[in-house]
Prior knowledge:
Layout: E1 21-26, E2 29-34, H1 45-60, E3 66-70, E4 75-77, H2 104-109, E5 114-118, E6 121-123, H3 125-132, E7 135-139, E8 143-145, H4 156-166, H5 168-177, E9 181-182, H6 183-189, E10 194-196, H7 201-213, H8 217-231, H9 236-243, H10 246-256
Helix pairs in contact: 4-5
Amino acid sequence: MLDDPRTGTPPQGDWLGTPFLRFERHGPLAHCIVDRPKKRNAMTPSMYFGVRYAINHVDADAELAGMLLTGTGDVFIPGGDLGGDNSDGWGDLPGLLFMDLVPFDAFRQSAKPVVSAINGICQGGGLMMAMLSDVAVASDRATFRAPELLRGISDTNYAQILPRQIGPARARDMLLTGRTVSAAEAVEWGLVSRVATHDELMDAATEALVAACRSAPVARADIKRSLDAYYGLYDRIGMINSLRGDEALEGYHAFRERRPPRWIPDELPTEGRL
């Protein structure tokens, strides 16, 4: 795919602007597939924007009724690529994250149903996409994590969305400790709404998508507008300042250098990156 002459070119039609996303048509259903196995599906800026474009593309296409988002291998979406790989042409993620390229608002406001089939590791931006999907179906092998504070990022979008999704006590636990949550815990907490055996994941997610596509479009939009209002607005100015700040820079370098960040007290030693 890296030899594709369109690598790094803007989205157009079913081309999502990056070789690491695939847009497939299955009758009236679209599949957006994150396919970057060599980087464990870590998201570049163009990949984030490609998912946003895919949702808008489905909304505008009269032949499509809804979209299913999934990953490849044992990874759904682990969040942004902090390793500095620019092979699809947009530059480093930290310098671009504060731009309006992430797809989260598109999930909240999509006219047509979007279902996530969570096939494996789901964290960072991937977990945000899963939570904001109309239905999220997880493989029983999936795991979930919100590690932003371990990267020096005050992700105020997480601070806004996660407590409304699972309650403040569990949100504090996930955000402040960076703990890993199993698929069984995720469905019990309300991070996702359904769990399926790994081999049955795509069938279960497709079943949910088909059911959602049968709902009345105008009435569905009214319900989604109420749900969008429930999630509310987040402190975007604060998050932009954080992404440009010293802690995020140290978190970025620590991640790339596979070491613990320097803000950890010497009395609390740890090895490797968090």
